[in-house]
Predict the 3D structure of the following.
Amino acid sequence: MYTLYYLPDACSLATQVILHELKQPVNIINMQDVADFSSINPVGSVPVLLNKKAVNKEAVNSATVNGQTSHREGAAIILHLLNTHKNTLLPTQGIERDHAIENIMFANATMHPAYGRLFFINQYITDEAAKKEAYQAATAAINSLWLVVENQLATQPFLGGESPSPAVILLSVYARWGGSFPVDIQMGPNTQKMPAAVLEIPSFVRALAAEQKQSAA
């Protein structure tokens, strides 16, 4: 059984979807319900994934929480899970594997920070004129990245192939965030179809329902 620390509708949602795709049982805990979350992750961010107990003294170090092995950073967690459990989500070798990892990093290290600017602007810029200008710049950057995705979808329905990949799951989570801000995120027709399809896969539906159930409890 895995334990996943999450924030509602954050990038940790993608980790939960991957766990369901891998048919791995998981207990999710809202980081907001943890009195001292910094003891679990000093950076203060999610996701954080805990798994089986450490088996020797050497394993008990700063990467353990309550005797369980701790994994941090979304892309690293996803790659760990895909390398640990047999699956068809990540090619096992060759250029296909390289491209799949490249797509995961594009989602996590390029698209995610682009959307992250929207949260920063909303929280830290108070001058309305400056905020509007910052939103416009951030929106332009995001739209340019979605155009890159659109160009890659000219010959395939999903980034990376014929079915949703880990990178696509990440991107589909981020695509939900634009509606929370006064911005005009533009996606091409092929790009719009991609997250729409991912939102309907059973593992995504299940992950969203689990978060909503926790919030209602």
Remarks:
- Residues 2-88+203-216 form a domain with the Glutaredoxin fold (CATH 3.40.30.10).
- The longest strand covers residues 48-53.
- The chain has seven helices and five strands.
